[in-house]
UniProtKB/TrEMBL annotation:
Record's protein name: Ribosome-binding factor A
Keywords: Cytoplasm, Ribosome biogenesis
Organism, as annotated: Serpentinicella alkaliphila
A GO MF label: ribosomal small subunit binding
Stored SUPFAM superfamilies: Ribosome-binding factor A, RbfA (SSF89919)
Gene Ontology CC annotations of this record: cytosol
Origin organism lineage: Bacteria, Bacillati, Bacillota, Clostridia, Peptostreptococcales
Subcellular location(s) of the protein: Cytoplasm
Oligomeric and partner information: Monomer. Binds 30S ribosomal subunits, but not 50S ribosomal subunits or 70S ribosomes.
Short name of any one Pfam family annotated for the protein: RBFA
Gene3D superfamilies per UniProt: 3.30.300.20
UniProt similarity note: Belongs to the RbfA family.
Amino acid sequence: MAYPRVNRLNEEMKKYISHVVRNELKDPRVAMMTTITEVDVTRDLRYATVFVSVLGKQKEKEDTMEALKKSSGFIRREIGKRIKIRYIPEILFKLDESIEKSVDMFALIDKLKVNNSDQEVEKDGGDE
């Protein structure tokens, strides 16, 4: 069963958290290529799981996640200023690697296409 209020809150939180991370968070550990991919607020509106995608090396990902976890109180306060609800959800950050997995999958598909086209050229060239 879908909960329209929770869905609206998910989208609003995603928009505002993205804004705060991009424009107001001054921690140098946060990588430039950080994206908030999804926010999932629980039905009781107490917790919000924020999925973060970071493009870069493993060290950058770890530093960014650590910085975001340390600044979750600041982000929660800023969200409280912008969204008028009784309880501001506690923010939990999780690393989302789905974008990188999809990039890897596309690279594998392209590699297979190149290999298949090379095999077809060899077959066509051998028949003559």
